[in-house]
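Appendix C reproduces, verbatim, an entry submitted by the partner laboratory led by Prof. M.T., so that reviewers can inspect both the input and the predicted structure.
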Amino acid sequence: MGRRGLHALQPKAFTQRTTDSTHGLRCAPNRLLDQPKPTQANRVWVSDITYLPLANGDWAYRCAFQDMASKQVLGWHVMATMPEELCTLPSSISQW
């Protein structure tokens, strides 16, 4: 490419700035730190949030729920905002 004067197109470095450690909102404690790893399915579920960039420049937020023993993803929510309800399981997982 260099001999022909061609250069790869490379987007500018992107640094996502979404963490605000001084937000003043409550944070859930990690109750699994001192616990043994679960060996049976459906005993311990965990969740995590992922930021999804949209084509129009906005963000969507996905919270996925995973069984710790089987590592199976049980379901997820996607919302345009990140309220507490995003990471709250419905009363019945079978709704998914």
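The mean pLDDT is 83. Additional entries are available on request from the coordinating office.
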